[in-house]
Amino acid sequence: xxxxxxxxxxxxxxxxxxxxxxxxxxxxxxxxxxxxxxxxxxxxxxxxxxxxxxxxxxxxxxxxxxxxxxxxxxxxxxxxxxxxxxxxxxxxxxxxxxxxxxxxxxxxxxxxxxxxxxxxxxxxxxxxxxxxxxxxxxxxxxxxxxxxxxxxxxxxxxxxxxxxxxxxxxxxxxxxxxxxxxxxxxxxxxxxxxxxxxxxxxxxxxxxxxxxxxxxxxxxxxxxxxxxxxxxxxxxxxxxxxxxxxxxxxx
Length: 251
Hints:
Shape: globular
Radius of gyration: 18 Å
Structural class: alpha/beta
Number of helices: 7
Largest sheet: 8 strands, mixed
């Protein structure tokens, strides 16, 4: 079944590369890697598969991940797109699901809106390191945005105030913040969510669509927001939502 599955990873860095690695081990048939950035020295602490040669030669992150995947699963098709997802948005429509490993709320909102138009499930992960009086705190999330179910706005993860004032504090712990382990935990959680959707290996499997990660206690738990959404339909992407290519009025 997985050999006939097509997925995309949007954002191939600290979160996207461990997801790509696991997809290769699982034998996913087709993977689209989308990211326009170059692998640099300061990515060593989070970019799985990076090497000195890749840094010296200025490889794109998608090439680093492609080499990693091909060594594990050479039979799989790995397509690299060294650009923004908007430049190759058509490929997302062909996927069974999309992993989002983007920075920022606006970027997530745009991708979710697009995928909802084409009924493609989205699994988003992200993490942050914040400085407090007692030290640094590591937090993260894994969110499943499923057509016909709640969205990231329903969960309170995306809000208008956050879209107008990006509350990004990434990097407060310093340039060499050690983020490889929380990224690995979140990537595994996201891949587990995907397997729950793709494989009928447990008839009673019910994965909470919003999981939060506490990097200080090393715990992944369902978000407390879920209990307030029971029996409440998504008001943001209801039955009236437009689908397919948007129609533009020409002047």
